[in-house]
């Protein structure tokens, strides 16, 4: 909310009051009209205070580098959507509807039983977002029978239970099969638009090459090589 600031001065035979917010100012003078000049000075003081409080650019701070994640809420949302039999575990059949978790199972299944329990999901998300969802340079390599695939379109779609924080990312592979993934400019802070950046997190991935589309998943993180540069072999997907 834009702050409201009131300033007043009292001088002989008159009280000058100036009040305003970022959008408009009003002033009133009780006393001689000749004191209007004093009122204008107070009004100017209000403007100065507003600039200090809100900044010259107003209240719109578009210089973020990370976004906070409520991991407890995200885990609850994931189980509401994915735990179709209500047993408190995400089994192999349920994980098929979330390639990001399915293909990152080893990171989430701390018990090694092949399933993901809610506390396991929340624990891993807490580790992943320990410093919030931060911007990072994420690339991926697309191969076919171990050979680089050029011109493949790679789309990263955030998992549904993190879609309120993450955005879609996209990239196209070069001659070495490497795609530099990035958010659309509208999803990046204004000072970083045009750069290859995206937020770390869980994404369902689709890769289109040669008229064929393959689906997989990826936990984009900044703590491992696979996290920042996964390799997808189309023949193995």
From TrEMBL:
Domain of life of the organism in this record? Bacteria
Mention any Pfam family matching this sequence.
EF-hand_5
Q: Which GO terms describe its molecular function?
A: calcium ion binding
Q: Residue ranges of region Disordered?
A: 215-237
Domain EF-hand per the UniProt entry, residue ranges: 70-105
* InterPro entries from the UniProt entry: EF-hand-dom_pair, EF_Hand_1_Ca_BS, EF_hand_dom, Ig-like_fold, Invasin/intimin_cell_adhesion
Its ancestry begins with: Bacteria, Pseudomonadati, Planctomycetota, Planctomycetia, Pirellulales
Which Gene3D superfamilies does the record cross-reference, listed alphabetically? EF-hand, Immunoglobulins
Any idea what this protein is called?
Answer: EF hand
